[in-house]
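Format notes (please read before filing issues)

Several people have asked whether sequences and structure tokens are stored in separate files. They are not. Every record keeps both together, in the order shown below: the sequence lines, then the token lines. Line labels are part of the format and must not be stripped during preprocessing.
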Amino acid sequence: MSIDVSFVLPSYRGANAAGRHVPLLLEYLRTVGLRHEVILVDDGSKDGGETQRVAESLGCRYLENPKNQGKGAAVRRGMLAATGRYRFYTDIDVPYELANIEAMLWYLDFKEFHFVAGDRTLDESSYYLHVPWFRRAASHVYSTVVGRLVAGGWFDTQCGLKGFRDHVAEDLFGVGRINRFAFDVELFYIALKRNYDIKRLPVRLRCNETSTVNVLRDGAAMVRDLGAIRLNQLFGRYRPLLPVQRTIDSSPRANAAPRKVTLHDQ
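Then the structure lines:
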């Protein structure tokens, strides 16, 4: 049986969060009638097998990195192991309201966008009122730098809810190299170089439990990774593995209203 939707959930010491929040995602996917798989990727938690036990008890696929490599490495492994026609990733605490998924699927399936991304800066989004002021300030500074220097005007590359058509996921994650938090920026950078069609959509925060970003430590590493992205491009490390299929305009707009999704037979 073919899989409609794959969800990749990276986890580092996230067994408790998975047990509380992943059942909500599973119930939602069953309710809307999508043939699905949820892949929990343990990024070297070393928790005595607790994450694996939770994943198996929920009926999720379980993958494990032998040591902690970073969120980007965990998401990449899950995306390349996924089999769904449409492939998403989000955080282990499923931080955004699940209604966002239906809108994203509509744009991937009916409108044939290659890549859909949550954008916390859109007027319809509800996010920044629920996070500390220093996180908001740091995010604004980083997003401004990224948007102007790397991501071609896309000012929210870090929202933890993104979806892709299957061949696009295989292409982007097949050549991606950044293992930690700047991997999202790398995805946008490569996708824009490919002229992939990207749709940004508003998101509403449901909970905010699992962020492990340290503004000073990780901020410096993320800036360093921005330089690595430009060098990777310079040395030809992002050459496409698959032919690029283009459909529609890729400018960063979010203007059309989503409809209830019914996946087309292909």
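For reference, the curators noted about this record: The chain has two domains: 1-94, 95-255. Helices lie at 15-31, 50-57, 71-81, 99-109, 133-149, 166-175, 183-193, 215-234.
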